[in-house]
Specification:
heterodimer; A: alpha+beta; Alpha-Beta Plaits; five-stranded antiparallel beta sheet; 9 strands; B: alpha/beta; Rossmann fold; six-stranded parallel beta sheet; 23 helices; 20 strands
Chain lengths: ~160, ~550
């Protein structure tokens, strides 16, 4: 059966140990975590946790049921298969020798990202977008010389009906 | 009212109806034990914390209530982990209370500190670290609620020393409300109607029931359901007793050591109505070949059990007893004569299977066969004893040759398969059912894993009977070595063993021995009807194996028969 990416979004109790329960469920049962993002919601007692996993359809069903079974998980939504907005963010520190500076800024402009830190030898660029956009900018920056990157996992929300 | 944490704990336990705690004290529990002594809750002092967890498990199964065990921090807590894991695999409601170092020391590698909440996260239904005395009453109530509701399971509550020491105003919460936990008890009627239709259409149907039927107290409803629809019944190891072993519809247990007829039926049925089961690999064998010609109905309260291991035609999420009650109502007007007519060929086939290869062994004149001991035990107790087992051959022979009539009479570590379970579980069962005869069917290997609990039984005057099928081997592994590893008996020969009769006497119990077949009945009679704790040491055939046997990973219709 084909394995696809599935974006699962869940509301969980904002308590110590909850992340460990979820991560433990994935490792204990051999499920895959491609990325994971978690932060408080507007209700300080609840956090939203978004996991991107690679699994076939029956396994995705099982993962959702197992997550729902955890006492601290309030609700699990699968975003894949419906309309949703997904974003990732990356900070990219690139070598910025004088001969490359103009080129880097052009790319920054094209991708609508921002330079957030400038040094004699580097730029740090902040970029937000979907997976494809991040991959594209990284491939353009690579020949110029990436010193370091920090990348977030995916965050996502359903689109409301228009 | 100002109370300290220990007092609040006792008050809450009383309110939850706790009358017995299996435990072992320690530094961070002294104040709790001091309060415990002021209540009328019975404390059973075990000799090893693993025993406390198993005893609470046995108490829960025999009594149909939540079992409670209490141990100290660090090693006390880690020693319960095997018992917790066993209760988790078998969905047994147990609350484990562990002491913890004071909150300000947590994380400092303090003396007898261990992160027991972290350790037991994957083997409890849920667990708590209580951080404030104010939260204690609510958490204890939630723990009991979670343990006993939905698919039951063990819940651990870790209580730091300062939490049990500090004083606060007690506000006893009225109800437990958990926004994220709300098990589905009432099954969807549309789904049940589909099940009823499938049953009426089926030509070769059968029922496969499991521990869920016993846990939901649905054995009576299952019996009514089977008789009404004239479907033959098999159960998993955990389901033994959910359907009377003397009923003509009874096929015997399914699976690796299941009966010939139960396994063959599964291979050829066209409808498998599975209730309160989880399709363990010891049941299904090769999953692709399991019930391959059949539609599968799966009724279970835990949605994760459904479609986890086998594909299902009609899933039903709900309480087994309620689902069976509803099915019985839906099938009220079914014409039994019609069904019998339509399924004549199927029932003839089953009769044929039953006579092809019934459970059997040859009793030698000189050497006791282990099966013979169980058969005689069954006859002498009229099938009414509560049987606990250790794990291995003793467990399988008990399952095959003791024909259980009633639920909650077979207490075994099914999922985890943990040796050393039977004796402490028997202690718990005897306390839950003081008037019942409780027998631990053991092997000479596994009994040694928690033999120290003999002392607990004797001290508490519990007339638990231990039947040791003493073959001088770790028999089940030896059997695999015989069949699949060229008879190379590596590390399975127990040629150095204690004298169990003297050992029993050393503990202040009665020790009896049978060496010849003609000794079996007299020894059983003397042991079973003694008012004391008894060990009966049966010297049985060394290389007897459990049959039928399905090699691991083979389809269950491909059995080795004797």
């Amino acid at each position: 059966m084909t394995e696809n990416k599935h974006v699962l979004s869940m509301l969980v109790d904002n308590e110590p140990g909850v992340l460990s329960r979820i991560a433990g469920l994935f490792s204990g049962r051999g499920y895959n975590i491609e990325s994971l993002c978690v932060a408080e919601t507007t209700d300080p007692q609840i956090s939203r946790l978004i996991i991107v996993t690679q699994a076939n359809q029956p396994l995705t069903e099982q993962i959702k049921k197992q997550l729902n079974k955890l006492i601290n998980v309030i609700k699990v939504y699968e975003l894949t298969g419906s309309e949703f907005v997904q974003r990732e963010m990356a900070l990219i520190k690139v070598n910025a020798k004088p001969e490359h500076r103009a080129e880097i800024l052009r790319i920054v402009d094209i991708f609508r990202c921002r330079v957030v830190d400038v040094g004699k030898e580097h730029y740090t660029i902040e970029v937000t977008g979907d997976e494809g956009k991040l991959a594209a900018i990284l491939s353009l920056m690579k020949p110029i010389g990436i010193k370091e990157i920090a990348k977030s996992g995916a965050i996502a929300l359903f689109r409301e009906p228009k | 009212m100002k109370l300290n944490g220990a007092q609040i704990l006792m008050k809450t336990l009383k309110e939850e109806g706790v009358d017995t705690i299996f435990g072992f004290p320690g530094g961070v529990l002294i104040n709790i034990y001091d309060e415990l002594a002021k209540t009328d809750i019975r404390h059973v002092l075990v000799r090893h914390e693993q025993g406390a967890a198993h005893a609470a498990d046995g108490y829960a199964r025999a009594g149909g209530r939540v079992g409670v065990c209490m141990v100290t921090s660090g090693p006390g807590a880690t020693n319960t982990v095997t018992g917790i894991a066993s209760a988790y695999m078998d969905s047994i409601p147990v609350v484990i209370i562990t002491g913890q170092v004071p909150t300000q020391l947590i994380g400092n590698d303090a003396f007898q500190e261990v992160d027991i909440v972290g350790i037991t996260r994957p083997c409890t239904k849920h667990n708590f670290l209580v951080q404030r005395t104010e939260d204690l009453a609510r958490i204890i109530k939630e723990a009991f609620f979670i343990a006993r509701s939905g698919r039951p399971g063990p819940v651990l509550v870790d209580i730091p020393k300062d939490v049990s020491n500090n004083v606060t105003d007690l506000e006893m919460p009225e109800d437990v409300a958990l926004r994220s936990y709300n098990p589905t008890y009432n099954p969807n009627m549309r789904q049940l109607k589909k099940v009823a239709e499938l049953i009426e259409e089926a030509e070769r149907p059968m029922i496969f029931a499991g521990g869920g039927v016993i846990l939901s107290k649905g054995a009576r409803e299952l019996t009514e359901f089977a008789r009404k629809t004239q479907m033959p019944v098999t159960t998993s190891l955990m389901g033994l007793g959910a359907f009377p072993g003397s009923d003509p519809l009874w096929l015997g247990m399914i699976g690796m050591h299941g009966t010939y007829q139960a396994n063959m039926c599964t291979g050829e049925c066209d409808l498998l109505v599975s209730i309160g089961v989880r399709f363990d690999d010891r049941v299904t064998g090769k999953t692709d070949a399991f019930a391959a010609q059949s539609k599968i109905v799966h009724i279970d309260i835990d949605p994760t059990s459904i479609r986890k291991n086998v594909p299902v035609t009609v899933p039903v999420v709900g309480d087994c007893r309620i689902a069976l009650e509803n099915l019985n109502t839906l099938l009220r007007d079914t014409d039994l004569g019609d069904l019998k007519q339509k399924r004549k060929k199927w029932s003839d086939r089953i009769v044929e299977w039953k006579s092809t290869s019934p459970l059997d062994y040859v009793q030698d004149e000189e050497i006791i066969k282990p099966q013979y001991v169980i058969e005689k035990l069954y006859e002498l107790t009229k099938g009414e004893a509560i049987i606990t087992t250790e794990v291995g051959q003793n467990q399988m022979w008990a399952a095959q040759y003791y024909h259980f009539e009633k639920p909650n009479h077979f207490i075994t570590s099914g999922g985890l398969g943990c040796m050393g379970f039977g004796l402490p579980a028997a202690i718990g069962a005897q306390i839950a059912q003081p008037d019942s005869l409780v027998v631990d069917i053991a092997g000479d290997g596994s009994i040694q894993m928690n033999i120290q609990e003999m002392c607990t039984a004797v001290q508490n005057r519990l007339p638990v009977k231990v039947v040791i099928l003493n073959n001088g081997y770790l028999g089940m592994v030896r059997q695999w070595q015989e069949l699949f590893f060229g008879k190379r008996y590596v590390a399975t020969c127990l040629d150095c063993a204690p004298d169990f009769v003297k050992l029993a006497e050393a503990y202040g119990a009665v020790g009896l021995r049978a060496e010849k077949p003609e000794d079996v009945v007299p020894v059983l009679k003397e042991g079973l009807f003694s008012p004391h704790t008894v060990i009966m040491d049966f010297r049985v055939a060394g290389e007897e194996s459990v049959y039928p046997m399905v090699p691991a990973g083979a389809p269950i219709t491909e059995m080795l028969l004797v």
